[in-house]
Automatic annotation (TrEMBL):
Taxonomic placement: Bacteria, Pseudomonadati, Bacteroidota, Cytophagia, Cytophagales
Keyword field: Signal
Signal peptide bounds: 1-27
PROSITE patterns xrefs: PROKAR_LIPOPROTEIN
Protein name as annotated: Uncharacterized protein
């Protein structure tokens, strides 16, 4: 009991510090200083000249050099690689997509359990942590921004979307009200192993996900627990500390 209380206190302090950092840095949400070199899929542009130059190619290795993007085509034939440079201009934009796998650690601030066995909707705010693995898409919107000194500089806005599975450990309150039959008669916090699927939104400073999962209560009361392997709905939350 004392260890679980310490874990909850630590999680609460961690979330408070994270939210304070988020509020202090909210202007940076969804922005990165420059486009990282790497493999991208060309999605769209409102510049007809660039659309014509790109043609049917969609896979490129892209580098940013000050106010220009350099595209290096990844040809699957014997034809010479497609190469071009594009100077970002005001009023024009380019949208690129990067696909990759994602591995993250999340907390689960709450789980909502549907009514069951005469017990109404239950909101579980106990300590929960999850290891998430999935597929993600990072969208990069590159355009030109006019500064106060009338100088134009490239601006890169980004958002990440993903989907995947998770598993982890947590705790839940156990009492006679949530057992199909009388258990030990002692109210306590039991350990649960949870797993499920989630959709993730990544704003670079924080990650937020909607999840559906199920729990398995460990111990002798597991087989009598109303919510054993029953679905719940919740939220995943994490901070990007990279």
């Amino acid at each position: 009991m004392r260890h679980l209380s310490l874990l909850r206190n630590f999680t609460g302090h961690f979330l408070c510090l994270g939210l304070s950092s988020l509020l202090a840095s909210c202007a940076a949400v969804g922005h990165v200083p420059t486009l990282e070199p790497g493999d991208y899929q060309f999605l769209r542009t409102n510049d007809p000249a660039l659309a014509t130059a790109v043609g049917k190619d969609r896979a490129f290795y892209v580098e940013q050099a000050q106010d220009s993007l350099h595209f290096f085509g990844q040809s699957k034939t014997d034809a010479p690689p497609h190469r071009l440079s594009y100077a970002v201009r005001r009023g024009r934009y380019v949208v690129l997509v990067q696909r990759k796998f994602d591995l993250d650690v999340f907390t689960i601030p709450f789980k909502a359990r549907p009514p069951r066995g005469g017990v109404p909707v239950q909101l579980n705010t106990n300590f929960n942590a999850a290891l998430y693995f999935g597929r993600r898409l990072d969208f990069y919107h590159v355009n030109s921004h006019l500064q106060l000194n009338q100088r134009q500089t490239p601006q890169v806005r980004t958002v990440g979307l993903g989907y995947g599975v998770f598993t982890g450990l947590g705790s839940t309150a156990v009492s006679a009200d949530v057992l199909r039959q009388v258990g030990s008669g002692v109210e306590y916090e039991g350990f649960v192993v949870h797993a499920g699927a989630a959709a993730i939104y990544d704003a670079r400073i924080f990650n937020l996900g909607l999840a559906v999962g199920f729990d398995q209560l460990l111990g002798p009361d597991g087989s009598h627990w109303l919510y054993q392997r029953k679905p719940w709905f919740g939220v995943l939350f994490g901070l990007d500390l990279n």
